[in-house]
Amino acid sequence: MELSALRIFKAVAEEGSVTLAATRLNRVQSNVSARLTQLEESLGVALFHRTGRGLQITAEGDRLLAYADRLLQLADEAQAAMRPDQQPAGQLRIGAMETTAAARLPKVLAAFNRQHPQVDLVLETGPTDHLLDGVLRHRLDLALVAAPVPHAELEQQPVFAEELVLITGPAHPPVRAPQDVARRNLLVFRSGCTYRRRLEAWFAESGVAPGRISEFGTFEAIIGCVAAGMGVALMPMEIISQRKLGRTIQVHTLPPAVAQVETMLVWRKDVLYHPARAAFAAALAPAT
């Protein structure tokens, strides 16, 4: 099994299309198709279901993808280790919570790009659980997630201290306890978000039932709906301050057990040598 074949398989799996994978790899489509077929024949299994809407990975393909990620990462690590003076280069896959990406990363990424122009930054946003899974499965090189991080196989570096606040419509009276917003709708990120778990736990521990729970894909949508009076939400104060939203929403402070949360930079302990990752971790170190 050649590493080049695994790179082609991985690209097809991630793109869901031979055509898109060929474009990404700068190969002709017929070559990608042929190499994929050869790999399937050598393994004796179908790695994809061919449908009119593209390719859908099979259970066997999904298992191989986990191994491919590990093998390709190890190969890249070994190559880099043979050149210890090598400057950071290549692709660096970063995961971040959406609010962290918006409030904390723009200046960091811009400065990193100026200092390390040979590094190709790829940013993926999502809730903490999704990002942790990405690092554990070698889909991401590192991620910025909310503490706590209950995974012994991950290194952790604290980088930001966030204060979470409850936001409501602009005319809402002061909120000191969940009873003050009882039966209000909760506007939250999708499942797997640590901030969402904190908000739901705050209600549950007080024995207060919220109204409906509505999921959103972006913090802008959450803030806009809060301002329109649709419900309440939990949001980092940094986002509110940077966007000067004081006139459109009301901000309510919360008990420290709910409000105080650390953002952690995490990566796999068993990936020992990764110059671009080390450089990015160093770039965030002054923020600790």
Description:
This protein has 288 residues and is α/β, with parallel strands linked by helices. The chain folds into 3 domains: 3-81, Winged helix-like DNA-binding domain superfamily/Winged helix DNA-binding domain (Arc Repressor Mutant, subunit A, Orthogonal Bundle); 90-160 and 262-287, 3-Layer(aba) Sandwich (D-Maltodextrin-Binding Protein, domain 2); 162-261, 3-Layer(aba) Sandwich (D-Maltodextrin-Binding Protein, domain 2), CATH 3.40.190.10. The protein contains 12 helices and 11 strands. It has helices spanning 3-15, 18-25, 29-43, 59-81, 98-103, 105-115, 128-136, 194-205, 219-227, 237-243, 256-259, 275-284; strands spanning 48-51, 54-57, 90-96, 119-125, 142-146, 154-168, 186-189, 213-216, 233-236, 250-252, 260-268. Strands 3, 4, 5, 6, 9, 10 and 11 form a 7-stranded mixed β-sheet that branches. Helix 1 packs across helix 2 and helix 1 (3-15) packs across helix 3. The radius of gyration is 22 Å and the shape is globular. The two termini are 44 Å apart. The relative contact order is 0.14.
Write out key terms for the chains shown.
single chain; 288 residues; alpha/beta; Arc Repressor Mutant, subunit A; D-Maltodextrin-Binding Protein, domain 2; 3 domains; 7-stranded mixed beta sheet; two-stranded antiparallel sheet; 12 helices; 11 strands; 44% helix
Topology (SSEs and partners):
Blueprint: H1 3-15, H2 18-25, H3 29-43, E1 48-51, E2 54-57, H4 59-81, E3 90-96, H5 98-103, H6 105-115, E4 119-125, H7 128-136, E5 142-146, E6 154-168, E7 186-189, H8 194-205, E8 213-216, H9 219-227, E9 233-236, H10 237-243, E10 250-252, H11 256-259, E11 260-268, H12 275-284
Parallel strand pairs: 3-4, 3-5, 7-8
Antiparallel strand pairs: 1-2, 5-11, 6-9, 6-10, 6-11
